[in-house]
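Shapes recur. Our protein:

. . .
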Amino acid sequence: MPVINSEVLPVRREGDIVSVRQAVRKWAVEIKCSLVDQTKVVTAASELARNLLIYGGGGEVKLEKLQEGLRGGVRVTFEDQGPGIPDIQLALSDGYTSGSGMGLGLGGAKRLVNDFSIESEVGKGTRITITKWK
């Protein structure tokens, strides 16, 4: 699927989460997402960027604007070299928390977007990719 534009943002401190939120919102507006869909993808991105910082020790967020036929999309990839997630199914389950964040957890973030994938290896890090389609 063709990538129209991309940008990589570092997440090393709290203020970087705000930058991720602003960039995701800007791109969601550009592909003409409804206000509800903008809020969903920005909320998911905010939760995942916070997790990246708190649990992954920081990392990078890659934003991509997609075009597939007539529909546009925003794909956001969160990648760290942190401790990894030992039990992905548990981490995705409702009610699972490791103590902070907005309380959405990975499962909540997953429900806010159209596509969600997670890869994690203990001791090597985690990559989570979300996509919101218009």
